[in-house]
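Tutorial sheet, problem 5. The two components below are modelled jointly, 353 residues in total.
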Amino acid sequence: MSSVDKSSSLHQDNPSLLIGRNWIERLLVTFIANHTPQCREVVRLLSQSMEVKLPITTRIKLRFHFFICAWCVRYEKQLRALRKIATSLPEHMDDICPEALPNSSKERLKQALRAKEPN
Amino acid sequence: MARSKTTTLQRKRIHPWAAGGSALVPETVCNAARESSSNVNPDSWIEQHGDCLYRYALIRVRHPEVAEDLVQETLLAAVRTYANFRGISSERSWLYGILKNKIFDYFRKLAQEVSFTDLEFLEDEMSHKFVDQGWNHERGPTHWKPDPEAALDRKEFWETFRSCLDKLPVRIADVFVLREMEQMDTAQICEALRISQNNLWVMLHRARMALRECLELHWFERKPRLDTQTNEQR
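Model answer (C-alpha coordinates):
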Protein backbone atom coordinates (compact mmCIF):
# COMPACT_ATOMS: atom_id res chain seq x y z
CA MET A 1 0.00 0.00 0.00
CA SER A 2 2.96 2.35 0.49
CA SER A 3 3.29 2.49 -3.28
CA VAL A 4 -0.06 4.28 -3.40
CA ASP A 5 1.12 7.60 -2.02
CA LYS A 6 3.95 7.97 -4.50
CA SER A 7 1.67 8.97 -7.35
CA SER A 8 -0.89 11.69 -6.72
CA SER A 9 -2.98 10.66 -9.74
CA LEU A 10 -3.91 7.46 -7.94
CA HIS A 11 -5.52 9.43 -5.13
CA GLN A 12 -8.50 10.28 -7.30
CA ASP A 13 -9.10 6.64 -8.14
CA ASN A 14 -8.80 5.45 -4.57
CA PRO A 15 -12.11 5.53 -2.71
CA SER A 16 -10.58 4.24 0.56
CA LEU A 17 -11.09 6.12 3.79
CA LEU A 18 -7.37 6.60 4.39
CA ILE A 19 -5.32 7.18 1.27
CA GLY A 20 -2.37 9.17 2.52
CA ARG A 21 -3.40 12.76 1.86
CA ASN A 22 -1.00 14.14 4.49
CA TRP A 23 1.86 12.85 6.61
CA ILE A 24 -0.37 11.56 9.44
CA GLU A 25 -2.50 9.59 7.00
CA ARG A 26 0.58 8.31 5.20
CA LEU A 27 1.97 7.12 8.51
CA LEU A 28 -1.32 5.44 9.41
CA VAL A 29 -1.67 3.78 6.02
CA THR A 30 1.85 2.41 6.20
CA PHE A 31 1.31 1.23 9.75
CA ILE A 32 -1.98 -0.50 8.96
CA ALA A 33 -0.61 -2.00 5.75
CA ASN A 34 2.29 -3.48 7.69
CA HIS A 35 0.15 -4.90 10.46
CA THR A 36 -2.82 -6.30 8.59
CA PRO A 37 -2.93 -9.18 6.06
CA GLN A 38 -2.45 -8.48 2.36
CA CYS A 39 -5.53 -8.16 0.14
CA ARG A 40 -4.93 -11.59 -1.33
CA GLU A 41 -5.13 -13.04 2.16
CA VAL A 42 -7.99 -10.73 3.20
CA VAL A 43 -10.30 -11.98 0.45
CA ARG A 44 -9.57 -15.56 1.48
CA LEU A 45 -10.38 -14.73 5.10
CA LEU A 46 -13.57 -12.92 4.07
CA SER A 47 -14.80 -16.01 2.31
CA GLN A 48 -13.85 -18.12 5.31
CA SER A 49 -15.74 -15.76 7.60
CA MET A 50 -18.93 -16.82 5.83
CA GLU A 51 -18.36 -20.38 7.08
CA VAL A 52 -16.88 -19.96 10.54
CA LYS A 53 -16.47 -17.14 13.00
CA LEU A 54 -12.91 -15.85 12.68
CA PRO A 55 -10.76 -15.25 15.77
CA ILE A 56 -11.31 -11.82 17.30
CA THR A 57 -7.76 -10.65 16.49
CA THR A 58 -8.27 -11.50 12.82
CA ARG A 59 -11.58 -9.68 12.78
CA ILE A 60 -9.98 -6.57 14.26
CA LYS A 61 -7.19 -6.72 11.70
CA LEU A 62 -9.76 -6.94 8.90
CA ARG A 63 -11.60 -3.88 10.27
CA PHE A 64 -8.37 -1.89 10.21
CA HIS A 65 -7.54 -3.13 6.75
CA PHE A 66 -10.91 -1.80 5.56
CA PHE A 67 -9.77 1.74 6.50
CA ILE A 68 -7.08 1.63 3.86
CA CYS A 69 -8.69 -0.57 1.23
CA ALA A 70 -12.06 0.24 -0.33
CA TRP A 71 -11.76 -2.73 -2.67
CA CYS A 72 -11.78 -5.28 0.10
CA VAL A 73 -14.79 -3.48 1.62
CA ARG A 74 -16.62 -3.85 -1.68
CA TYR A 75 -15.51 -7.43 -1.95
CA GLU A 76 -17.03 -8.26 1.42
CA LYS A 77 -20.30 -6.54 0.54
CA GLN A 78 -20.44 -8.40 -2.75
CA LEU A 79 -19.82 -11.76 -1.10
CA ARG A 80 -22.88 -11.15 1.07
CA ALA A 81 -24.87 -10.09 -1.98
CA LEU A 82 -23.77 -13.27 -3.72
CA ARG A 83 -25.04 -15.39 -0.86
CA LYS A 84 -28.34 -13.55 -0.92
CA ILE A 85 -28.61 -14.14 -4.67
CA ALA A 86 -27.88 -17.86 -4.30
CA THR A 87 -30.37 -18.35 -1.47
CA SER A 88 -33.16 -16.51 -3.28
CA LEU A 89 -32.58 -18.60 -6.38
CA PRO A 90 -35.26 -21.23 -5.62
CA GLU A 91 -37.94 -18.49 -5.74
CA HIS A 92 -36.83 -17.61 -9.25
CA MET A 93 -36.56 -21.11 -10.57
CA ASP A 94 -38.68 -20.41 -13.67
CA ASP A 95 -36.46 -17.48 -14.64
CA ILE A 96 -33.17 -19.25 -14.20
CA CYS A 97 -34.25 -22.57 -15.66
CA PRO A 98 -37.07 -22.35 -18.19
CA GLU A 99 -36.48 -25.87 -19.50
CA ALA A 100 -39.35 -28.28 -19.16
CA LEU A 101 -39.21 -32.01 -18.98
CA PRO A 102 -39.40 -33.13 -22.63
CA ASN A 103 -42.65 -34.87 -23.56
CA SER A 104 -40.78 -37.98 -24.67
CA SER A 105 -39.19 -38.19 -21.23
CA LYS A 106 -42.56 -37.74 -19.57
CA GLU A 107 -43.91 -40.70 -21.52
CA ARG A 108 -40.84 -42.74 -20.68
CA LEU A 109 -41.26 -41.91 -17.00
CA LYS A 110 -44.91 -42.91 -17.10
CA GLN A 111 -43.97 -46.24 -18.61
CA ALA A 112 -41.28 -46.81 -16.01
CA LEU A 113 -43.63 -45.97 -13.18
CA ARG A 114 -46.44 -48.13 -14.49
CA ALA A 115 -44.06 -51.08 -14.64
CA LYS A 116 -43.21 -50.57 -10.96
CA GLU A 117 -46.69 -49.79 -9.75
CA PRO A 118 -47.70 -52.26 -7.05
CA ASN A 119 -51.17 -53.13 -8.42
CA MET B 1 -54.52 -45.36 -22.42
CA ALA B 2 -53.54 -43.98 -19.05
CA ARG B 3 -56.42 -41.51 -19.11
CA SER B 4 -59.12 -44.13 -19.68
CA LYS B 5 -57.67 -46.24 -16.89
CA THR B 6 -57.85 -43.37 -14.43
CA THR B 7 -61.34 -42.34 -15.33
CA THR B 8 -62.71 -45.84 -14.88
CA LEU B 9 -60.96 -46.02 -11.53
CA GLN B 10 -62.39 -42.70 -10.50
CA ARG B 11 -65.84 -43.61 -11.71
CA LYS B 12 -65.73 -46.80 -9.68
CA ARG B 13 -64.70 -44.86 -6.62
CA ILE B 14 -67.28 -42.14 -6.98
CA HIS B 15 -70.15 -44.37 -7.93
CA PRO B 16 -71.24 -45.83 -4.57
CA TRP B 17 -71.34 -42.36 -3.01
CA ALA B 18 -72.83 -40.47 -5.87
CA ALA B 19 -76.40 -41.40 -4.94
CA GLY B 20 -75.86 -40.54 -1.23
CA GLY B 21 -75.36 -36.78 -1.54
CA SER B 22 -73.42 -34.59 -3.86
CA ALA B 23 -71.93 -32.53 -1.01
CA LEU B 24 -70.01 -35.55 0.21
CA VAL B 25 -68.45 -36.40 -3.09
CA PRO B 26 -65.37 -34.16 -3.27
CA GLU B 27 -64.17 -35.12 0.19
CA THR B 28 -64.72 -38.82 -0.27
CA VAL B 29 -62.97 -38.77 -3.61
CA CYS B 30 -60.04 -37.08 -1.92
CA ASN B 31 -59.94 -39.65 0.89
CA ALA B 32 -60.29 -42.52 -1.50
CA ALA B 33 -57.29 -41.28 -3.41
CA ARG B 34 -55.20 -41.50 -0.25
CA GLU B 35 -56.61 -44.77 0.97
CA SER B 36 -53.92 -47.09 -0.27
CA SER B 37 -50.77 -46.97 -2.31
CA SER B 38 -52.36 -48.89 -5.17
CA ASN B 39 -54.54 -45.88 -5.89
CA VAL B 40 -51.57 -43.60 -6.46
CA ASN B 41 -51.65 -41.80 -9.76
CA PRO B 42 -48.05 -41.11 -10.82
CA ASP B 43 -49.21 -39.95 -14.24
CA SER B 44 -50.80 -36.90 -12.71
CA TRP B 45 -47.67 -36.28 -10.65
CA ILE B 46 -45.63 -36.17 -13.82
CA GLU B 47 -48.09 -33.77 -15.44
CA GLN B 48 -48.42 -31.52 -12.40
CA HIS B 49 -44.99 -31.56 -10.82
CA GLY B 50 -42.72 -33.11 -13.47
CA ASP B 51 -41.39 -29.83 -14.88
CA CYS B 52 -40.84 -28.30 -11.46
CA LEU B 53 -39.00 -31.34 -10.14
CA TYR B 54 -36.93 -31.50 -13.30
CA ARG B 55 -35.93 -27.82 -13.04
CA TYR B 56 -35.10 -28.19 -9.39
CA ALA B 57 -32.77 -31.08 -10.19
CA LEU B 58 -31.35 -29.62 -13.39
CA ILE B 59 -30.19 -26.36 -11.84
CA ARG B 60 -28.37 -28.35 -9.17
CA VAL B 61 -26.82 -31.22 -11.09
CA ARG B 62 -26.57 -29.39 -14.46
CA HIS B 63 -26.90 -32.54 -16.60
CA PRO B 64 -30.30 -33.12 -18.27
CA GLU B 65 -29.94 -36.91 -18.22
CA VAL B 66 -28.96 -37.00 -14.57
CA ALA B 67 -31.82 -34.64 -13.69
CA GLU B 68 -34.27 -36.87 -15.52
CA ASP B 69 -32.99 -39.97 -13.75
CA LEU B 70 -33.32 -38.23 -10.40
CA VAL B 71 -36.91 -37.28 -11.15
CA GLN B 72 -37.62 -40.89 -12.05
CA GLU B 73 -36.01 -42.20 -8.87
CA THR B 74 -37.96 -39.65 -6.86
CA LEU B 75 -41.28 -40.69 -8.34
CA LEU B 76 -40.49 -44.38 -7.90
CA ALA B 77 -39.65 -43.78 -4.26
CA ALA B 78 -42.83 -41.73 -3.95
CA VAL B 79 -44.94 -44.58 -5.29
CA ARG B 80 -43.30 -46.96 -2.83
CA THR B 81 -43.73 -44.73 0.20
CA TYR B 82 -47.06 -43.12 -0.65
CA ALA B 83 -48.68 -44.91 2.27
CA ASN B 84 -46.47 -42.84 4.61
CA PHE B 85 -47.58 -39.58 3.08
CA ARG B 86 -50.20 -38.18 5.41
CA GLY B 87 -50.94 -35.07 3.45
CA ILE B 88 -49.63 -32.79 6.20
CA SER B 89 -47.40 -31.06 3.68
CA SER B 90 -48.45 -30.43 0.11
CA GLU B 91 -47.79 -33.18 -2.37
CA ARG B 92 -45.24 -31.05 -4.16
CA SER B 93 -43.14 -30.23 -1.11
CA TRP B 94 -43.24 -33.88 -0.15
CA LEU B 95 -41.86 -34.76 -3.60
CA TYR B 96 -39.24 -31.99 -3.31
CA GLY B 97 -38.13 -33.50 -0.02
CA ILE B 98 -37.54 -36.87 -1.65
CA LEU B 99 -35.77 -35.26 -4.61
CA LYS B 100 -33.50 -33.29 -2.29
CA ASN B 101 -32.32 -36.53 -0.70
CA LYS B 102 -31.83 -38.10 -4.12
CA ILE B 103 -29.67 -35.18 -5.22
CA PHE B 104 -27.59 -35.46 -2.08
CA ASP B 105 -27.18 -39.20 -2.68
CA TYR B 106 -26.12 -38.47 -6.25
CA PHE B 107 -23.30 -36.21 -5.09
CA ARG B 108 -22.30 -38.68 -2.42
CA LYS B 109 -22.05 -41.46 -5.01
CA LEU B 110 -20.21 -39.17 -7.41
CA ALA B 111 -17.62 -38.44 -4.75
CA GLN B 112 -16.84 -42.15 -4.56
CA GLU B 113 -15.94 -42.13 -8.23
CA VAL B 114 -14.20 -38.81 -8.79
CA SER B 115 -12.05 -36.60 -6.65
CA PHE B 116 -13.70 -33.35 -5.63
CA THR B 117 -10.47 -31.57 -4.91
CA ASP B 118 -9.91 -29.01 -7.64
CA LEU B 119 -7.26 -26.67 -6.37
CA GLU B 120 -5.62 -25.64 -9.62
CA PHE B 121 -8.64 -23.52 -10.50
CA LEU B 122 -8.11 -19.78 -10.54
CA GLU B 123 -4.59 -19.92 -9.19
CA ASP B 124 -3.21 -17.90 -12.06
CA GLU B 125 -6.36 -16.33 -13.39
CA MET B 126 -6.68 -14.00 -10.45
CA SER B 127 -3.07 -12.99 -10.04
CA HIS B 128 -3.34 -10.08 -12.48
CA LYS B 129 -5.83 -8.47 -10.14
CA PHE B 130 -3.34 -8.01 -7.37
CA VAL B 131 -0.37 -5.67 -7.61
CA ASP B 132 2.32 -6.24 -4.99
CA GLN B 133 0.25 -6.24 -1.84
CA GLY B 134 -3.06 -4.75 -2.88
CA TRP B 135 -5.68 -4.68 -5.61
CA ASN B 136 -4.78 -3.39 -9.01
CA HIS B 137 -6.75 -0.14 -8.92
CA GLU B 138 -8.17 -0.48 -12.39
CA ARG B 139 -9.20 -4.06 -11.91
CA GLY B 140 -10.30 -4.20 -8.29
CA PRO B 141 -13.97 -4.75 -7.41
CA THR B 142 -16.17 -1.95 -8.70
CA HIS B 143 -19.16 -0.41 -6.99
CA TRP B 144 -22.14 -2.55 -8.04
CA LYS B 145 -24.83 -0.51 -9.72
CA PRO B 146 -27.76 -0.94 -9.80
CA ASP B 147 -28.23 -2.48 -6.40
CA PRO B 148 -28.02 -6.31 -6.51
CA GLU B 149 -31.39 -6.48 -4.73
CA ALA B 150 -33.05 -4.82 -7.71
CA ALA B 151 -31.59 -7.42 -10.05
CA LEU B 152 -33.32 -10.33 -8.33
CA ASP B 153 -36.58 -9.69 -10.14
CA ARG B 154 -35.00 -9.48 -13.55
CA LYS B 155 -35.17 -12.57 -15.72
CA GLU B 156 -32.04 -11.50 -17.61
CA PHE B 157 -30.11 -11.35 -14.37
CA TRP B 158 -30.85 -14.99 -13.62
CA GLU B 159 -29.80 -15.93 -17.14
CA THR B 160 -26.49 -14.19 -16.50
CA PHE B 161 -26.14 -15.88 -13.13
CA ARG B 162 -26.73 -19.27 -14.64
CA SER B 163 -24.21 -18.75 -17.42
CA CYS B 164 -21.68 -17.66 -14.79
CA LEU B 165 -22.41 -20.76 -12.76
CA ASP B 166 -21.96 -22.89 -15.89
CA LYS B 167 -18.51 -21.38 -16.44
CA LEU B 168 -17.22 -22.68 -13.12
CA PRO B 169 -15.29 -25.95 -13.13
CA VAL B 170 -17.84 -28.67 -12.36
CA ARG B 171 -16.60 -29.70 -8.93
CA ILE B 172 -16.31 -26.09 -7.78
CA ALA B 173 -19.86 -25.44 -8.96
CA ASP B 174 -21.13 -28.59 -7.20
CA VAL B 175 -19.65 -27.43 -3.93
CA PHE B 176 -21.12 -23.96 -4.35
CA VAL B 177 -24.56 -25.40 -5.11
CA LEU B 178 -24.56 -27.61 -2.04
CA ARG B 179 -23.35 -24.86 0.25
CA GLU B 180 -25.19 -21.79 -1.00
CA MET B 181 -28.27 -23.12 -2.76
CA GLU B 182 -29.01 -26.17 -0.65
CA GLN B 183 -27.57 -24.39 2.39
CA MET B 184 -26.02 -27.56 3.65
CA ASP B 185 -23.80 -27.66 6.66
CA THR B 186 -20.07 -27.54 5.84
CA ALA B 187 -19.39 -30.66 7.92
CA GLN B 188 -22.10 -32.55 6.01
CA ILE B 189 -20.62 -31.50 2.66
CA CYS B 190 -17.11 -32.51 3.69
CA GLU B 191 -18.32 -35.92 4.81
CA ALA B 192 -20.40 -36.53 1.69
CA LEU B 193 -17.81 -35.34 -0.80
CA ARG B 194 -14.84 -36.75 1.13
CA ILE B 195 -12.89 -33.54 1.24
CA SER B 196 -11.21 -31.76 4.11
CA GLN B 197 -12.71 -28.64 5.60
CA ASN B 198 -9.76 -26.63 4.38
CA ASN B 199 -10.23 -27.82 0.81
CA LEU B 200 -13.91 -26.98 1.00
CA TRP B 201 -13.09 -23.44 2.12
CA VAL B 202 -10.61 -22.99 -0.68
CA MET B 203 -13.08 -24.29 -3.24
CA LEU B 204 -15.87 -22.06 -1.96
CA HIS B 205 -13.48 -19.11 -1.98
CA ARG B 206 -12.59 -19.77 -5.59
CA ALA B 207 -16.23 -20.23 -6.57
CA ARG B 208 -17.22 -16.95 -4.95
CA MET B 209 -14.27 -15.14 -6.47
CA ALA B 210 -15.13 -16.35 -9.97
CA LEU B 211 -18.87 -15.76 -9.65
CA ARG B 212 -18.34 -12.27 -8.25
CA GLU B 213 -16.01 -11.47 -11.09
CA CYS B 214 -18.34 -12.91 -13.72
CA LEU B 215 -21.41 -11.07 -12.43
CA GLU B 216 -19.46 -7.84 -12.26
CA LEU B 217 -18.27 -8.19 -15.83
CA HIS B 218 -21.49 -9.41 -17.39
CA TRP B 219 -24.15 -7.71 -15.38
CA PHE B 220 -23.09 -4.78 -13.24
CA GLU B 221 -20.55 -3.24 -15.54
CA ARG B 222 -21.59 -4.16 -19.02
CA LYS B 223 -25.32 -4.43 -18.78
CA PRO B 224 -26.13 -2.46 -21.96
CA ARG B 225 -23.89 -4.68 -24.03
CA LEU B 226 -25.46 -7.77 -22.56
CA ASP B 227 -28.94 -6.52 -23.44
CA THR B 228 -28.02 -6.04 -27.07
CA GLN B 229 -26.48 -9.49 -27.09
CA THR B 230 -29.61 -11.16 -25.81
CA ASN B 231 -31.73 -9.20 -28.28
CA GLU B 232 -29.58 -10.41 -31.12
CA GLN B 233 -29.97 -13.97 -29.94
CA ARG B 234 -33.72 -13.62 -29.99
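Marking note: Confidence is low (pLDDT under 50) at residues 1-38, 223-234 of chain B. Full credit if you identified this.
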